[in-house]
Structures are given as C-alpha cells and as structure tokens.
Design brief:
The protein has 303 residues and is α/β, with parallel strands linked by helices. The protein has nine helices and nine strands. Helices cover 34% and strands 23% of the residues. The longest helix is centred in the last third of the chain and has 18 residues, at 258-275. The termini are far apart.
C-alpha cells in the first residue's frame, strides 16, 4: 500500500520552536498552523506558561511546533521561569520561528530576543511578521526592510494569524528548511500534551477571558482528578484554581458563585469539544500565598 505521506526518502520532518515577546500572537499562529486549538489564546500578555507541542501534518512533511512563553525582562520568579522555558526550547530544534507584532512592536523584548539569538549559534531562524491585517502596505514594506538589517533571518514572511493570511506561505518556508526524516507522530495526533493538561489550560484561559486586572496573572490551575467513564459517555474532572490572596479568591468565586459558574461552564464546553464526550467539571478555588514568587510553589504547581 503506498505511503500517503509520499516516498520515505523524500519525506521531511523536524522540530520548530516558536519564540517572541508576550502577546504577539504565537499561540494563535500555532493553532492556525495546526488547524485545531492546542494552545490557549488571550489578548492579555504572558498567557502561555509552558512549552506546548503542536503537530502540523502536511503532504510530504510534518512540523512539530514548540509554543513557548513570551520572552521579556522580569525579576519575578514565575516570569523568569517562563523566559528560561522559552529560550531552552531553541537549543534542540531544527528551526526557530520568531514571531513579532508588526502593528504594535515591543522594542525592548525584541532586542532581548535578538541578543539571545546572537549570543550563541542557533538553527535557521524564520521571522513571521504577524498582524499585517492592521497595516497599510507601504508601512509593512518599511518594517520588512528594517528587520532585514537587524538579523540574518533565513526568510521573512508577513502573516495574519487571526485572518489566516500567508500562513500556508509560512509553512512552505519552514518546509524548505526541514531535514529529510520520518514523521515523529501519527497523523491523528496534533499534540503530545496530555488531555488533562489541555483541560487545565482551557480552564485558565476562561479565567483570563472573564476576569480583569491582576487576577489572571495570579492564577494557576491543577487537575485533581480526571476520570473517564466510557459507558456513560462522560469524563468527570475536578480542578483547583489557585490564587495568591483571599481577595482574589472572592473575585474568582463572584457574587453567590456566579463567576466560578461562568468560568466552569465556558471551560466545560471547550473541553467537551476537545474530548468529544460529555464532561462534568467541578471547580474549587484555593489560596496559595504568593505562589508566583516562590520557587517551591512553582514546582508544586507544575512550573
């Protein structure tokens, strides 16, 4: 039977780290390239805290993407850990995809990334100029010319992750530089992250969407139980939302539990779509004093 991916001697595969400043659209771009949601998305910066793998399956090639936290300067333990996670991802990959917000640049974070890229030998780096749907063409051409002078990128591809503009062209640019090799994952697998981890991220995403100010950045989610009941077409999940102060716990719970119910309902719908089954989701809120500044607490919560 012929191989649907093409001849083994010409098939390409490899790992690509996605790096960039916070809130440039890395997770949205990953989800668009994959074709399904594997990384949570928010208009608030620093949404992604872990290195998340997503797999793009295309005729003749497979790309394993590592979505990383936004790179930025910070003395906070959690933020420093996030930057460490992001930069460690580029050490063992075949390609690096640097994403910048072409419409709203972050010069300090971009310079930090370029400095780190220049400090040691890196794999080929492709630059994706994201959010071009917000720019006029003359301004975009000016931005492209400027980025050509700051680093020896293998290619610069303007894209819009939200609109899907030139995403196929970006995948083609990555494919050109992949090594020959067999696929790492079967065609029906789009991420190596366990379902319980993605479920926890979906809950955290709803906290980002439904709460304001400092609450999302002081929140972590852990799955306490994940029970599959196939005979009932049901998955039963108990999860804890961890915050740093009693006042934050009150905000997460809301008036007579209204906010917690809204978070749970929105998360349950996403988790059901991911799992393809009914979900019973029970949420609890716990106070972990100053967990984002405590290295021991970070380890306890999985960071």
């Amino acid at each position: 039977m012929p191989n649907p991916n093409g001849p083994a001697e010409t098939f390409k595969s490899g790992f690509t780290a996605i790096i960039g400043a916070p809130n440039v659209g890395k997770s949205t771009l990953l989800n668009t390239m994959i074709g399904e949601k594997v990384s949570i998305v928010s208009n608030k910066p620093q949404t992604t805290r872990n290195r998340i793998a997503g797999v793009s399956h295309r005729p003749g090639f497979q790309i394993v993407f590592l979505d990383t936290p936004g790179i930025h300067k910070s003395t906070k333990a959690l933020n420093s850990k996030m930057v460490e996670v992001a930069m460690s991802a580029i050490k063992d990959v075949d390609l690096v995809l640097m994403v910048v917000d072409a419409a709203n640049p972050e010069p300090a974070a971009e310079q930090l990334i370029l400095t780190k890229l220049k400090s040691s030998r890196q794999p080929p780096v492709i630059l994706a100029l994201n959010k071009i749907d917000l720019l006029k063409k003359p301004k975009l051409l000016e931005i492209i010319d400027r980025w050509r002078t700051v680093y020896a990128f293998s290619e610069i591809v303007p894209v819009s992750a939200t609109e899907g503009i030139q995403v196929d062209e970006l995948l083609d640019a990555l494919e050109k530089r992949l090594p020959i090799g067999p696929p790492y994952f079967p065609e029906d697998m789009i991420t190596d992250m366990p379902e319980r981890f993605i479920a926890s991220e979906m809950i955290r995403e709803k906290v980002f969407e439904l709460t304001a100010r400092e609450i999302p950045f002081s929140t972590a989610v852990t799955i306490e139980s994940f029970e599959e009941l196939p005979k009932q077409n049901l998955v039963r999940i108990h999860a804890a939302i961890h915050v740093e102060r009693d006042s934050q716990k009150g905000i997460i719970i809301g008036n007579q539990g209204a906010m917690l119910r809204a978070i749970g309902e929105a998360a349950r719908l996403d988790i059901e779509q991911m799992l393809g089954t009914r979900v019973f989701l029970k949420l609890f809120v716990r106070v972990e004093k100053n967990w984002s500044r405590d290295a021991r607490a970070l380890r306890k919560l999985g960071y």
